[in-house]
Here is the input.
Amino acid sequence: MRIRTASWLLGMVVIAMTTVGCGAPDRSAEAAQLETTLGSIPGVESADVYYTNGFDSGYTVDIKVMMPGADDRQVVAMVRRMNAEMGNEFDDYGTPVTIGIGDNVVIESGGRFTPEGAAADLATARVAQTGVAAGWITVSHREGGPSIDITDAADPVHAATVMSAAFGSARGEIDVMPREPGSQLRWLVNTPVSDRHIHDAAARIDTLGTPVAAVTVDDGGIAELWIDAGTETNAHATVSAVIHSLGAGRNRPLRLHWRVSPAVDTWERDASGSASVGTCDETRTDRAADPRTDFEAASVALERRIRAEYETCRK
Here is the structure.
């Protein structure tokens, strides 16, 4: 077991606060026993419990269990046993749980797994494990819906399609990072989304003739796009061409982000901009009104011009 402690001074503060009803009780012995118990469960290759009790560093029992050779029944049985062993002893602690089920495939939860939640996440992870070629796969739940993060994907479009089918009608999030970022896109998919939406989005992007770094797809098609708009001299034409090519507007809103480069070699870094095409983002803050260089001034002017032309905010 790994026990993380604060300095002796913070330790004294914790003791003082505990005396008056603050802080969390010492559960280091229980955490050590939990680690031993988890390591003895059938199907478990290794178990680590990272215990933290400190006023400054927080109160956490971080559980990591590796079960690469276990079947789903054994994983769910481990979750039941883990919850039984923990009881109410760690109610004052954060209890994130990570379970490894294969080479670079994990399911994780910000708190305790329920057996039903673990079974659902296992089903999603097994689909990815057998149907997606990737460097790392993480399955979890966010705001009640399934979520999967896939990194180093050999074929991001295929990965997005496979997992959207696996999610079915569930409202969830798919994030696919490509193996070759220079020539492949990052795909973010908000399900439910059909295969057709994903393939249509890929086809539309192929026709743009503009470098695209990432795309978000939902049941309405392309919802968000990140592009390289080139240099400041042609950026407006590039951004406008993308908007018109995608048919973005009131009937098909698009959150568009772009990167723009100086027209000449300079020490200045690329600038970024964004616009809510066909809608209005009232919460957005405007860019700085006092740019330090001509290029900064040009990038700010570009963003304001695009927003004035394509957003619906009341002038």
Summary: The longest helix spans residues 115-131.
